[in-house]
Each structure stands twice: as structure tokens, then as C-alpha cells.
Fold this protein.
Amino acid sequence: MYRIEVGPGDLAASRFGIAPLHETITALGLAAGRVPAGPVSPWVERARPRYASIAADPAVRALAFLRRRHGYMADFVQPPPGRPNLTVAEQLAVARATPEPQAREEIARNLDGLPTPPDDVRAVLHAPDVVRRLSDALEAAWTALVEPDWPVLRAILEQDIVHRAGRLAAYGWAEALDGLSRQVRWRGGMIEVDIPDEGAYRLDGAGLMFVPTVFSELGVALERNWPYTLMYRARGVAALWEGREGRVPRDDDALARLLGRTRADLLRALAEPATTTWLSARLRVSLGGTGDHLAVLRASGLVTRERSGRSVLYRRTAMGDMLVGAS
């Protein structure tokens, strides 16, 4: 079990971020069958042909080979975000700038306990240009597996951050950690994480970096050269494969007949407060179109909006709840 001691200044110093390369390497591990698919099985089935299109590259297979469910993974191929709105290009630049001795040390540590890799994979991992080859493989995996779904992925992650950051700011550690994972709890000034380890750590005023993810379960990064980071499964991952496609209009959908199908879908999607970006990605409607429909619902008294940090959240009014409930 990891125990992370929290001090008086750590709440204000804690922050949230999105890590595109972490999503990339975890998505690659899933598509390659290195780890169980779990709740994202529908996405994995859809992504396997995309993985097949890049799997001939031994560097891609070497990157997938490093993916493991438990135990250390090389840090340089999945750097934590230094700030909330980091792009994949910025993270790739960090990976490409890794000194070769550091990369070799991390790869050796990553391989400890794994079976002997195939010859072509081993050749990549021992190549003099291993940093370049694995960074190129990361970029190929991003382009094939993650980038096509990134608008929805990012909306899921941003929605989770709005929810979790609001709880942290308003209610403190206990409320922010509640529901994050069954393996995480707040106990007497300490964050306890049920991952096999006996480590004890202190934030010492630097705070904790929270990183919601779609493609992996709970994880921690407590290396000395990185911000202390807690990764956890974001809420609402089903939005990645659910959407308007495949929905069959129902003849008895009174709400859709009253408001129109898109506005009815928006009102139903607002079971919890949400941003325009999340709603747009969730329903596969353009951002401008979503905003226009929300404006009509707001003028009709069915939704309201409020600012939460840098985000604007829409929520149903009591009248909107009544309409959805009655339908």
C-alpha cells in the first residue's frame, strides 16, 4: 500500500492535468492484448484493425511489450503533464529529449520481471537510437489509435476534471477522493492507495497531480524527477463508443416530438452538469450547434448555466427535470 502524507499547503498546490501520451501507451497495450480490456472492451474491438495497421513496425511492438498491468513502466514514454492543457506535440518533445542513459536505465527497470522479448523487439530496445525509435512509435500509436477519438476522449477527461476539481476546492481531500476508486481512501491526513508497495511519501507543499484516464485503471507515479501523480479512471467512459450513431428514433418519444431530437438528447444528457464541449462530443453534434440548442433550452427555462473555474457548466432546471422525468 502506498501512503502519501499531505500537509497544510498541499490542497492549494494540487492540480489536474490531461496526459495524451499516457492515454496513447495504455491504448496501445489494450489494442495489442497486453492487458485486459475491462470496461473499454467495445473500444478495443473497434481499435484492433487500427493497431494491425501499425503492428508491423517492431518499435511499435517494443512499445507495447513495455506495457504492463502492474509494476514499473519506463517514465520517459509516458511523462506526466506539467500543466493542464499540455498537447501531444509538447509531450512528444519531452519524450524525444530524454537522455539515452536515462532511457536505458528505465527500460532495464521496466523489463525486470517480464519474459524475454522477441528478437526484433529486443533489437529495438537495445538500439543506439532507442529514444528516437520509441518516440516515433508513440507518435504512430497516437495517430492510429487515439487521435481519431481525441475530441470525445478529451471531453470525457475535461468533464471529470470539472467534477473532481470542484469537489477538491469546495470540500477538501476526503470528498475529492470519494468515489475516485475503491483502492483509494483518505485517512487521518494521509492518502492510502491499495497498490502492492510499502512506500511512504510526503508531498511537502508541492501538491498532488491528478490525471484522469480513459484506458487504464488506478496508477501512481512517485518518482523523484516527476510531480507526484495519481492516475484514475475517469467517469463516463461509455461516451467513447456511445453516441447518436446507431440510435433508433422511437415513435413514442414524446420529449423528442416536443423539443426536437437533438434538444431532447441534450436535456437527457444533462443528468449531471456538463460543459458544451462534453455535450458536443457525447452527442456527436458540432460545438456551434450544441451551443445554439443550449441557448434555446436556456431561454425556455429548461437549463441554466454557471461558471466553475475556467469552465461553463450547464445543468437542468427543476422544469427540465420534470420534463425528462415525465417522458
User: Anything to note?
Assistant: Confidence is low (pLDDT under 50) at residues 244-248.
